[in-house]
Amino acid sequence: MNVFQAIQERREITKYSDQLIPDDKLKKVEDAGYYAPTGNNLPSKHIVVVKDRVTLDKLSETTPYMKWLKEAPAAIAVTGNPTVSKYWLQDASIACAFIWLEAVEVGIGSAFGAVYHSEDEEESIKRENHVRALLNLPEEQRVVAVLGLGYPKENPKPKNHIPREEVVSYEKFS
Ligand SMILES: Cc1cc2nc3c(=O)[nH]c(=O)nc-3n(C[C@H](O)[C@H](O)[C@H](O)COP(=O)(O)O)c2cc1C
Question: Which residues face 45 on adjacent strands?
Fold first, then answer.
């Protein structure tokens, strides 16, 4: 599979089978996050891989929008450290994207659970603290997302993409 195929085939997968993810496949997904670029090449990101069932169940309660973690056999939390780089949010987001795409390549479905809440600082702290406590994260680590991982139980319906001309323009915005 080439990169463009992975980009085209990628979907959010929120229903998982009982099949466990082999370590070599999970390692490739982890490494995709590890090798992702960072602004100024600064080490602002961290990824925490979780396979413990109790922790995954508790992580599913981080926000109302990641209940699918209760079925997932694994998850990767992606965090960023603003004291290391002003690009912490971009660094962590790019790592999330690489993780998601590598999951496609190795046949694993992934879902994106947003944790950091840019509009409501109080809610963000509450959600992030929930993850911090479970994963032993230092205070300065901001929790960008928790990605659920697992073999898809079913394939999602085909996706209706936003019309291309609404998203892509040439030379000037139009
Ligand atoms: C920044 C961002 C935040 C997201 N947050 C959530 C979330 O909290 N919970 C969830 O189930 N899906 C979340 N998603 C997944 C999107 O809802 C999903 O990717 C989108 O509906 C498009 O579907 P597709 O991934 O199958 O193309 C998020 C995706 C992105 C990129």
Answer: 80
